[in-house]
Predict the 3D structure of the following.
Amino acid sequence: MTNELRLICVDLPAPPLFDKAASDGTRTGYEPSAAELVAGVLGKTVRWVVTSWSDMVPALQEGRGDGIWCGQGITPSRAELVDFTRPYAIFDESVLVLADSGIGSERDLAGKRVGAIAGSTNLALAETFPDVTTVPFDGATDDVLGDMVQALRNGEVDAVVDDDVALVPLGEQADLSVAFTVATRNRWGVSVAKGNDALRTDLDAALNKVIADGSLAAQWARWMPTLPFPLTADE
């Protein structure tokens, strides 16, 4: 249907970005709220196409969805496979540890095992820490962040790297702590199929509009009140 914007994502709990879909298929969190704003500007309704992390790009390339709106950092390797819009979010990266670990800085990670999602910007950051052993986690699993946190609690890794927005809520749990944050300023965008310039241009224009009128900042403040809104129109 032409009035639908079919957006690909996973159906996992990753608040405040998104949560598992309700029984009627509706989704909550910053990303679904932002997507609804953008779709509204385009005169469309959002239909979520649920798949796995590893299947998102194939689903886009095969035409099962119009775009991917699902926590994708804009990286050169991904840009070889898809075309990205301007960013709808910018995040730093944090390191999560056990609260009693004594780890509070990059220097304290020497000789430690550091987990991150395979192929992610987080793993790339972990690989820059001196004298650490990186442990990639398969992004094809149903709940890779949950898997990494469980491995941390089980002593299989000593630290986990992920985007600050994902780890700040976990750091509030009694047995966990955010050791430190690195200001990597990772830009997240919506991806479309290579060469789909018409849709990418429309999405960029809609994103600029909801940034300029303050509606995207309002959703950011609703879901992530502790993080400053990082975007300006026509970036």
Notes: The first helix runs from residue 30 to 41. The chain has a mean pLDDT of 94.
